[in-house]
Amino acid sequence: MIEISAQVDLSHPSDRVWQALTNPQLLSRWFTETETVTQAPQRLLLHTAGLPGFHAAVDAEVTDQRAPELLVLQCQEGDRRTQLTCTITRTTEGCRLSVQETMEHGTWPAEDRDHRERYYQQTLAGRLPAILDWLAFQQVDLRRGEDPPTAELPAIALSGRVPAPADRRRRLAIVAAVTA
């Protein structure tokens, strides 16, 4: 039995990592271009031809999933059939993502296997965290409930009080007059 494995510790919650694994648009941003198969919602076509260790597109079908901790795919790449298992384990800092691909039918030349394993590790450690940071940033409300929306970030005075916009303008005018 030939296996490829990679893992990474992430400073993101498991539900965000799950979203990056299961949302085809996000998967396309960090792993490879992805296309859903319209007749079968549990199938994806991963455009992996040309990536290190891949020689053809991968037809992947979800065979098991338990959000947000386990995703199992049956993958067909040319004459190779593999099982890809993604396990998300919560940690005190976020979570650990482990990816394991096991050959079920066919062979991998040693060089392809090594290239593929390196590609998994590089995408898990580099591109995936970047997408997770981007997702986290989108979920932050920089206005913190202020109305109306503003392009300014809230300023906090040394006293800990957030000055009203008029107070800030008046202080800027005073500072400008004093320094002139």
How is this structure best summarized?
With 180 residues, the chain is of the alpha+beta class.
What is the helix/strand order? Answer: EHHEEEEEEHH
CATH topology: Alpha-D-Glucose-1,6-Bisphosphate, Chain A, domain 4
Strand content: 25-35%
**CATH homologous superfamily identity:** START domain
What is the number of strand segments?
7
The average pLDDT value, as a whole number, equals: 84
Global outline = globular
CATH architecture: 2-Layer Sandwich
State the distance separating the first and last CA atoms: 77 Å
**Largest β-sheet summary:** 7 strands, antiparallel
Total separate domains:
1
Class by alpha and beta content: alpha+beta
Radius of gyration: 23 Å
Helix content bin: 25-40%
Number of helices: 4
Tell me what the structure shows.
This protein is an alpha+beta fold and 180 residues long. It is built from 4 helices and 7 strands. The chain has helices spanning 14-22, 24-30, 110-138, 165-179, and strands spanning 3-10, 34-37, 40-46, 58-66, 70-77, 80-90, 95-105. Helix 1 (14-22) packs across helix 2. The protein starts with a strand and ends with a helix. Mean pLDDT is 84; it is low at 155-160.
